[in-house]
Amino acid sequence: MAISNGKIRSVANIVDATRTLEGAGFVVNRPFPSQGLALFDPFLLLDEMGPVELGPGEAKGAPDHPHRGFETVTYMIAGKMEHRDSHGNAGRLGPGDVQWMTAGAGVVHSEMPAADFERQGGRMHGFQLWVNLPRRDKMIRPHYQEIPAAGIPTAASADGKAAVRVIAGEAMGVKAVINTRTPIIYLHWTLKPGTRIVQPAPADYNAFAYAFGGEGRFGRDEKAAVERQMVMFAGDGDAVSIAAPQSAREPLETLLIAGLPLHEPVVRYGPFVMNTREEIIKAFEDYREGRMGEIAPA
């Protein structure tokens, strides 16, 4: 168990993810943005890709598309993806791998199923989180932090009933290896039935959990949530409680994500997120004029 002497937050709201299509037609479950929740400062979007079982030739991805003004965090649970960009970067993501891409001033990017996975098919499951950049960082040079599954720090309780993968921030005394532009917590918790953890989360952070397996009880009010639901915590404490009930038939799998809000204007249009309308217009002009580059043929 992660221990905190602070006050446990209550649950402010529970949001159902909406099933939609992205890229070339792959299925995502999206709790936000939605009609009722445009963003969760400093976070702009969370997509759960799948989970879906794909036959040979059925896998789809996101062909060449631009980004400016924010970061994308891709975390794979199952399946294999390949990425390439207009700066000549290329890589491959498999189960447990994380790519933290800081788009900054602009990059043209593609995320496609790995060739062998596309041929053979299989289970595809992962997450993409969009993290806003503060005004001072929106035009920094694009760069990547790519961490293989074996490089993601992990921890577990003495009885083995609670386990965590530390993508950003700290849990159970273990710190992430990824550096973030703003203070962020990004944890993947696995809790066996009858297990409860209390995770520190500063009161000035916006915090939410996203369940993607099993069922859980969240906050000091122990609100119930199941897979494909986002639990928004109130800012009335500096710790978060998550539990898997004793009666659960399977472990709870949940992301716990929190970050210090920027409190800056957000103007977004498609793949661009800036502070003013004029900056969005400039982003489109730069993209159309080729100033973000293009992805060279493979």
In words, what does this structure look like?
It is a single chain. The protein is 6% helix and 51% strand. It has 298 residues and is mainly β. It has a single domain, classed as Jelly Rolls (Sandwich). It has a seven-stranded antiparallel β-sheet, with no helix packed on it. It has a seven-stranded antiparallel β-sheet with strand order 2-3-4-11-6-9-12. The chain has a four-stranded antiparallel β-sheet with strand order 5-10-7-8. The longest helix is centred in the C-terminal third of the chain and has 12 residues. The chain is globular and about 55 Å long.
Structure keywords:
single chain, 26 strands, seven-stranded antiparallel sheet, mainly beta, 298 residues, Jelly Rolls, globular
CATH homologous superfamily - what is it? Jelly Rolls
Poorly predicted regions are none
Biggest sheet details: 7 strands, antiparallel
| CATH domain class name | Mainly Beta
**Order of adjacent strands in the largest pleated sheet:** 1-22-19-24-17-14-13
**Gap between N and C termini:** 47 Å
Q: How would you classify the helix and strand content by structural class?
A: mainly beta
Radius of gyration: 19 Å
Number of helices: 2
Count of extended strands:
26
Q: How many structural domains does the protein architecture include?
A: 1
User: N-to-C SSE series?
Assistant: EEEEEEEEEEHEEEEEEEEEEEEEEEEH
Round the mean pLDDT to the nearest integer and report it: 94
